[in-house]
Amino acid sequence: MRNTILVTGGAGFIGANFVLDWIREVGTPLVNLDKLSYAGNRESLAPLAGDARHIFVQGDIGDGALIANLLATHQPRAVVNFAAESHVDRSIHGPRDFIQTNIVGTFEMLESVRAYWNALDGDAKAAFRFLHVSTDEVYGSLKKGDPAFAETKRYEPNSPYSASKAASDHLVRAYHHTYGLPVLTTNCSNNYGPLQFPEKLIPLMIVNGLAGRALPIYGDGMQIRDWLYVGDHCSAIRRVLEAGAVGEVYNVGGWNEKPNIEIVHTICDMLDQIRPKPDGTSYRSQITTVTDRPGHDRRYAIDAGKIERELGWRPTETFDTGIRKTVAWFLDNQEWIANVQSGAYREWVEKNYADRSA
Ligand code: NAD
Ligand code: TYD
Fold this sequence. Notes:
By secondary structure, the protein is α/β, with parallel strands linked by helices. It contains 13 helices and twelve strands.
């Protein structure tokens, strides 16, 4: 029986968590294709060193010949597509890579996967799945009191990042409708947890807090996101892969809307308890207000009722338990933090925050 799955972007934040969880929870072979962009980190996969079930391949999802070759060689029963450019602020500074990877790259994956799937026979063809990992940001911004995003919500992406993810979602949908490709799409809210690159809100605040640097809040800090612990996102993807109905979209969320400032206060208070500063001041004193992000979406909220009703999935972590695990992980993994803060990382921080002074 075909057992292998092909995962793309498995050296990034969510992908690496998914790969580690997969080997632990499912234990069947997995081919991990990742370009190792600035966001990809092989060190995150160190626990799998020497494990024959994990086959790492460095390469680009836009390389159709490579994808075709991997599919022919490993004959996967499923593809899970995480690979993407994922940071909104970077998409504002330079959208081109987002178009290339998120749209053109997904298109190339779909083309190679379609050819592979068409050539499969009987049971293998019926069992095959292409699961596309997407975001709630494709739905646009909510006002206070608006209902949370359901799967039927109109797409209204507002950033180059969310527009490129929306385009990829549309391509995935079209490949099902037109060619019958057995696709599944998940649209998830903001993730946090171990291995997240410290350009995103939560790891940036932990890392900057510990280093005594400023904690930059965009605008009034009252923008709302729904936050989901990464392990719960990984379990949702496994569940959709196992039991999702072909062609369907599943929203994934944590039932956990919070304004940014509250998130930052929680992190500061937790650090005050676990790692009090020698001078007795609170980490809150490092908070600074900086110029807002252009086109900043005000509120995201996910209605995760469909995946609960139809597939019985619910998150297991509360924000309190998840953020405790996350802060503890960053405190215990100072070497990982030091290694990802390369010259390229420092250049990004300079570019993003230099023209945002309070
Ligand atoms: P990330 O930026 O941490 O990791 C992306 C990974 O993809 C990196 O390892 C990178 O090297 C790889 N990659 C980039 N371009 C590639 C290419 N052309 N070919 C092969 N590999 C390439 O991203 P993440 O936060 O782990 O997000 C993973 C996926 O989940 C993305 O599709 C993102 O849109 C989606 N998502 C993220 C969140 C979130 O909160 N982080 C929420 C919902 C959905
Ligand atoms: P981010 O982690 O970049 O995720 P996204 O923009 O995809 O939701 O940002 C989460 C929220 O935190 C978002 O409203 C922007 C805000 N933010 C800050 O206030 N300061 C920062 O330094 C960063 C990176 C984000």
